[in-house]
Design a protein that fits this description.
Layout lengths: L1 E7 L13 H20 L4 E6 L2 E3 L8 E11 L3 E10 L5 E12 L17 H5 L2
Antiparallel strand pairs: 1-4, 2-6, 3-6, 4-5, 5-6
Length: about 130
């Protein structure tokens, strides 16, 4: 699992219980998955198609730093399937896991567009010609 993004839990991220609001965390996860897929598929018209069961394992509180990790599960014809884990940066305690997030590459008309990718590529490797 590669952890790319960190978030600092602030008062506006909390629910009435004083812990991280699940909807805010899902917003961050969706954005992270989209950015990862857009970079991998080299298409800014990449959208979330599906998110599997969301498993909240623990909570985060104001002042905690969480990190969002993603891994590629598989490349489809027009899709990229990821899995995600969010953990507390300091304690390494897992906060949430999502086993399957399907991102789809679209064309200008909003239809699924084959991307031709079969493996993870890093931007640095694309630049070395």
């Amino acid at each position: 699992m590669r952890f790319h993004t960190r978030k600092w839990i602030k008062p506006q991220d909390l629910n009435p219980n004083g812990t991280l609001f699940g909807g805010r965390l899902l917003e961050w996860i969706d954005e992270e998955a989209a950015l990862y897929a857009i970079i991998q598929l080299e298409n800014p018209r990449t959208v979330t198609k599906f998110m599997s069961e969301i498993d909240f394992k623990s909570s985060a509180r104001e002042g905690d730093i969480v990190e969002i990790g993603t891994d590629v599960v598989k490349f489809g014809k027009a899709s990229l399937t990821l899995k995600c884990e969010v953990r507390n940066k300091m304690t390494r305690e897992v906060i949430i896991t999502i086993e399957k997030i399907v991102m789809v590459s679209l064309d200008e008309e909003g239809k699924a567009r084959p991307h031709g990718k079969t493996k993870i590529e890093y931007v640095k490797d694309r630049l070395e010609d």
